[in-house]
Amino acid sequence: MKQPSVIPGFGLTLGFTLAYFSLIVFIPMIALGIRSAGLGFDGFWKAATDPRVLGALRVSFVTALIAAGVNVIFGTLIAWVLVRYRFPGRRIFDAVVDLPFALPTAVAGIALTAIYAPNGIVGQWFPFRIAYTPIGIVIAMIFIGLPFVVRTIQPILEEVSREVEEASATLGASRFQTITRVILPSLTPAILTGFALAFARGVGEYGSVIFIAGNIPFVSEIAPLLIYIRLQEFNYVGATVIAAVMLIISFAMLFFINLIQAWSRKRFGYGN
Amino acid sequence: MATKIRHLHRHHTSPVSESRTVQVIAIFLCLLFMALFLILPLWSVFIEAFAKGVGAYFSALVNKDAQSAIRLTLLVAAVAVPLNVVFGVCASWAIAKFEFKGKAFLITLIDLPFSVSPVISGMVYVLLFGAGSFLGPWLKSYGIEVLFALPGIILATIFVTFPFVARELIPLMQDQGTGDEEAALSLGANGWQTFWRVTVPNIRWGLLYGVLLCNARAMGEFGAVAVVSGKIRGKTTTIPLQVEILYNEYNGAAAFALASLLAMLALLTLVLKSFLEWRFGDELAATGRH
Amino acid sequence: MQVRIANVRKEFDRFPALHDVSLDIHSGELIALLGPSGSGKTTLLRLIAGLETPTDGKVFFGDIDASEKTVQERNIGFVFQHYALFRHMTILENVSFGLSVRPRATRPPAGEIRRRAMELLDLVQLSGLEKRYPNQLSGGQRQRVALARALAIEPGVLLLDEPFGALDAQVRRELRKWLREMHDRTGHTTVFVTHDQEEALELADRLCVMSQGKIEQVGSPDTVYDSPISPFVFGFIGESSELPVTVENGELWSGGRAIGVPAPDSKTGEARLFFRPHDVELVEHDASLAGVVTSSRRVGGTRRVELEIGGEGHKVEVDLPFDHPAGEKTRLSFRPKRWRLF
Predict the structure, then answer these.
(1) Interface test with A, best of C75, C87, C90, C154 (most A CBs within 10 A)
(2) What's phi and psi for C6, nearest 5 deg?
(3) Closest approach of chain B CAs to the CA of A230, in angstroms?
(4) What ipTM goes with this model?
(5) Which chain C residue is nearest to residue A162, measuring alpha carbons?
(6) What is the pLDDT of residues B69-126, one digit of tens each?
């Protein structure tokens, strides 16, 4: 199974890795699989097409899609500014991009609610409500997804060589043409990957969303919250079905990301 | 005159950069966006925490339930982080130093918890140990409570923080290869000596980086822990859960006071992380996402 | 097109990269900017292209002051050392790029762009590869795509920055020959930067030798090789040996002895003698330079002998036919046949 090597510890480390992985991740996930399978197709379908479940899935997916879209636009711009421009405080802003990775989601949730509430420092300037509506969900998902986009694009943008841009200029392309026809297309795989990561994270997000969402069924109730509610009701079947649907979709996303990267590596000779 | 202005303008614009005006607008837009979505929320945590004065802030922190939540959070992190460090080191040793079948698949599997909603991460343990499961009642007959108790909280925390150390160390150790270890072994060192005196010094900053991120997530995890904890005040509430309880009781100032502890932890994490990236950037794996 | 560089100076953050450089590039010639790294040759090329702006001085394309034009307006073809191909575009898209980004008014129709791109791919012998992506080509092929792409906009001047620098020796030699043929066929005014003197000597109509931000000498390969005007050029182009000598009574002296080389036109006093190792004659008896053989190795068809002259450790190299009996000796006497004093 393994190549001969003089380095010791293969059995020990791989054994521990597999055992630990099995106990913590694999067996529990299998339990989830068995529970869903136990329902049979009809039971599964019936539970999955429950109107409230469909409503929650729709809210989660639509808001995550919008948030990932906003993040792609601003995330690309932020990556661009951080890589290309020099201005005072750049290093600090670069570090702040990672805040959503470091700040616990519950803290982010109550803080976003405080500022985007109708009487909050930002919310009061808007003629419509932000917090306690689907817009609030989008806001929370933007917060949580931004670093995924920025950190995926940044290293690729750093690699775009100056020579390529100069080549474009010598061929007569305006700066705008160079950006839209040369630089952005070469960032496309990274942008798609960032989008997929931000989207997947948004769909699964719970902590930062539930405070700002309002949690009204069919309007602002997200799928993870519905799982939580079902679990509180000891309705494990209902919870399992929603979880299974979400997992299938996030694995499809993961597969999609891997596909983009494989395609990009093959065709253009670079990944991400 | 016109040519002169044109000429001066040319001096400042490189053919591979945007005009200063465009740059200023772009920078301003980014800063505005980041202020609205990142900086303002962080700022408001501290504003709201002190909304009722310094006295209220500290009394919220010394409150009995708050103290118990802090203790529980520290305990959970103190168990989960070291376990994930051991796992991360083992996994990266096996993956980076050896060739075996299914390696790429194993690397993908290790990242799995990142693509699972935290609520689902908690839920799998409810299914495994909850009512109607096989394991739960069996363990209960021996007096072991997993769900709505400390073991469940620790398990859920381990699950969500599972990949942090490993995904930092795997690319780092893969880059470093096996040359150093082979040299040490050829000089007569045994396996343990090689590990402690050659490998560990090589990976220490990457390890610290992984531990930092793992710890931040372990202390701040909300969704997964919320599902398994049962939220018994003073017993199974971690800081994030206590924040939620206080917030839902309309005790905003106390909720934000407790939240400010986590915000400070986040700031500390960011500062240390930036420091590590700045000072030891070449000894870290080039990963930015989690 | 004729290119004239007039008193150009360039500073990067106060660090001078070029001092007061002037150069006339004739229409249709192939000229090499040759020099060690840091000599300013690439900076000069980039100034012609408009990728850098001079701190002082002007660049004229014909009679037009090109300093007033942006790189986009200058209509130059630039070939980069690392090709700088657009890796998300096919070869055909790469070559068509320059025409397709033109404003609508001057842009040829799509069919015409395609026809011209295919023609160029044919010219650079890459027909059939137009649907490939750059990373599916070899280094030499990529460089030819880069050239076709630069030629597509029908540039007034073709500028090449170390065009063969990233290629291995074999491909490099082939492409060198091929570039010369291309130039003879298309007749573009061409400037190329290189640090490889062999490449410059073989390829260029004229050389412009640069050092430390200044032009040392401009001339045909023969002129530069046979009559270098400075110690730098003598040392940089071709093999050379150097020895401190004294000029007295219209003769060269070394170590207190006349060496049998008359120098009637040279100024009396200390000087440095430069000669090529192969431009020497062995002498038996007369006044000559004599030295102890310190090493001897065969280089191709000749034997290169290193001699120590005098007691101060000055070393020079001379070439002998590899089977010459003198190659076995421990002492040699010789006179330079062609030499210069600086």
Answers:
(1) C87
(2) -115, 110
(3) 10
(4) 0.90
(5) C84
(6) 999 999 999 999 999 999 999 999 999 999 999 898 898 889 888 889 999 999 999 9
Mark yes or no for CB contact A172/C101 under 8 Å.
yes
From the list B6, B7, B15, which residue is nearest C50 (CB)?
B15
Chain C partners (3+ C-beta pairs within 8 A): A, B
CB-nearest to A102 from B101, B158, B270 is B270
Name the DSSP letter for residue B100.
B
Q: Amino acid letter at C291?
A: G
Phi, psi of C184 (to 5 degrees): -65, -30
| pLDDT (tens digit per residue) in C80-94 | 989 999 999 999 999
C 33-62 near B (Cβ less than 8 A): 50-51, 53
| Closest of C84, C74, C101, C67 to residue A174, by C-alpha | C101
* Alpha-carbon distances, residue C171 vs A45, C129, C150, C196 (angstroms): 64, 19, 20, 15
Q: Which two tokens stand for residue C178?
A: 């091929």
Q: What is the reported pLDDT for B10?
A: 43
Q: Whole-prediction pTM value?
A: 0.87
Q: What CATH architecture applies to the domain A44-268? A: Orthogonal Bundle (1.10)
Residue pointed to by tokens 């005159």: B1
Chain A: which residues have CB within 8 Å of chain C? Answer: 161, 163-164, 166-174, 177, 181-182, 185-186, 188, 267-270
Judged by CB atoms closer than 8 Å, whether chains meet at B15 and C68 is answered as: no
Q: Which residues contact A220 (CB under 8 A, 6 or more apart)?
A: A59, A132, A133, A134, A136, A137, A213, A214
Q: In the structure encoding, which two tokens stand for residue A169, read together?
A: 């200029």
Q: By CB neighbour count within 10 A (0-12 exposed, 13-18 middle, 19+ buried), where does A69 fall?
A: middle
Q: In the predicted model, is pLDDT for residue A236 greater than 50? A: yes
Q: Please name the member of B16, B87, B289 whose beta carbon is closest to the beta carbon of A169.
A: B16
Give the tens place of pLDDT for each residue, C270-318: 888 899 888 888 887 677 888 888 888 888 888 888 888 877 778 888 8
Residue A4: band (very low, low, confident or very high) from pLDDT cuts 50, 70, 90: low
Cα torsion at A173, A177, A181, A184 (round to 10°)?
130
User: Which residues neighbour C285 within 8 Å (Cβ) at sequence distance 6 or greater?
Assistant: none
In chain B, whose CA is at the least distance from the CA of C53? B11
Sheet of strand C241-248: strand arrangement: C257-262, C251-254, C241-248, C269-275, C339-341
Scan for tokens 């001078």, then name that residue. Answer: C16
